[in-house]
Amino acid sequence: MAERKWTEQQLKAIEADGTLTVLSAAAGSGKTTVLVEKALRILLDEENKTAADRLLIVTFSNASAKEFKNRIEKGINEAIKNNPDNSYIKSQKVALQKADISTIHSFCIKLARENFEVLDIAPDFSICDEAQSLAIHEKAIDAAMEYGYENEDFRRYVSLFGKSSQDKQIREFLKDMFYYFSA
């Protein structure tokens, strides 16, 4: 396999050691390739051994997480092919199966499940789906509106949107604000 040609910026990110490295670049610029190369150099460095199961790589999509893991595994397989008697590299392939390479959401859920007692949550918690989320949101709006109607200023505010008995526009505004601030 031919040696890859790295740009100066890519090489700087790959070789950064002991410091925080932030990659920010346009789509298709090679960020994933750079990060995979960085991970492989760490994992294949026998002088400064780092077990693959100590990796933490978080992404924003399942497809991206899978891509990372596949590319790292491919790189380790290539290293094994070039060094078939190297037990350290072979051990990295096994350890990679336990590495935390996932979406940020999956990683956070894993942390919550491992630390449910400290977080004071039920160990069998679940993530609500869209329908559950909508129902919870509607219930919160109902409670907020009920609380608001106890206040004269709020009732006057609602009347600015139309008939004082009609609060549909306020409810829609609250939904819109929720989605706006959640995005």
Overall description:
By secondary structure, the protein is mostly helical. It is 60% helix and 4% strand. Helix 1 (8-15) packs parallel to helix 2, helix 2 crosses helix 3 (62-82) and helix 3 (62-82) runs antiparallel to helix 4. It is elongated, with a radius of gyration of 25 Å. The relative contact order is 0.07.
Helices, by number, come to 9
How many DSSP-defined strands? 2
Give the CA-CA distance, first to last residue: 43 Å
Task: Please tell me what the overall shape is.
Answer: elongated
Radius of gyration: 25 Å
Strand share of the residues? Answer: under 5%
Main structural class: mainly alpha
User: What string, H for helix and E for strand, traces the elements in order?
Assistant: HHEHHEHHHHH
Strand order, sheet with most strands = 1-2
Mean pLDDT level: 88
Which residues form runs of ≥5 with pLDDT under 50? none
The helix fraction, in percent, is: 55-70%
Q: Biggest sheet, in brief?
A: 2 strands, parallel
